[in-house]
Amino acid sequence: MAGKALKSKLRNKQLKPISAMRPATLNKLEKAVLLLFSNHDPSEVSMIQIANAANMSLKTLYNYFGDKQTIIYTILNRVLGRLAIRMIDHLQGIDSVKDRLRKTLWVFFDFIDKSPDAMMVLSTAVPVSRYREIAIYDNKELVDSYLQVLRDGQEQGILNDTVPLFTLFDVFIGFISRLGLMHIIRRNPAPLNDNFDELFIILWRAISKPEID
């Protein structure tokens, strides 16, 4: 009851900017959110549980986030933001379309291998229709840098150009998402990148022109 009363009281209060939260506190919150939501049904995780796991007051959570979903979106944006920076950095200085796609896939798999909790939270705690609530999904620099790889591949006659550009994008992301999620669910102890070459061949054959080896 106390939690509901506090939520009602703070509902219409202007939220504090995340930038005002101490980095150490935000780090603790990130660990707590990823741990809780990757191991429990999201509907069963309460704001009080999050506050306790992060060693924060319930009032602080409401002051900064307002509700549970905003906490999830904020933390995922933080985690995926680090991935985006790494992705953009790794694409610099590579000319070959195939090599850029290889590097992109490797970075994604490495992220999944090292951050399985984040992958689980993204897959189970956020409805697909709400992905755009995570700010990084509208990161123009990231999206454009990746789409440019696919666009170059189509223009150079390397990738399938009989389908729209975003179809290739969806195939690529779908391949990573499904493979990564099931790898975690099956508790496969081997890193995804242990089979990188074999997996890349499957993806390459799916998006390249049939005559391209």
UniProtKB/TrEMBL annotation:
Keywords: DNA-binding
Transmembrane annotation, as ranges: none
Domain HTH tetR-type: 23-83
DNA-binding region, residue intervals: 46-65
Signal peptide: none
Keyword DNA-binding on entry: yes
Stored Pfam families: TetR_N (PF00440)
Protein name: TetR/AcrR family transcriptional regulator
